[in-house]
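Minutes, project check-in
Item: structure for the 123-residue chain
Input as provided by the requester:
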Amino acid sequence: QIEPDAFTASIGLEACENAEAWERAFAMLLGVRARHARTNEIVYGSITSVSAKSMMWQLALWTLLEVPLYALELDVVAFNAALYACSSREKWKRTLGLFVGISSCRLEPDLVSFQLVSTESEQ
């Protein structure tokens, strides 16, 4: 059996993302952490993406809150995935809060960020 680390987890998480298998992705993350293996931004970014594709906005938000605890930084793509998860579930207050949070993390919102927020405000 291969011991999970950030590299093997990111490969497994990509497969989970393609299959929209958020439960399996979350279990994989917990398994990596239980073994005290080091995680990275790619692992958490993948969790955020699979959460968004599976419309699990709570897990996407949890991921964004979890990342700073490990001194990691996500990119705007991970925030956009969380924005998508919230906007798809008509969570406009959370969507707007996330959008503001992008800047507080010293990131610049991109075109996708603006589109997700504007689409949510139209609904």
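Outcome recorded: The mean pLDDT is 85.
No further action items on this chain.
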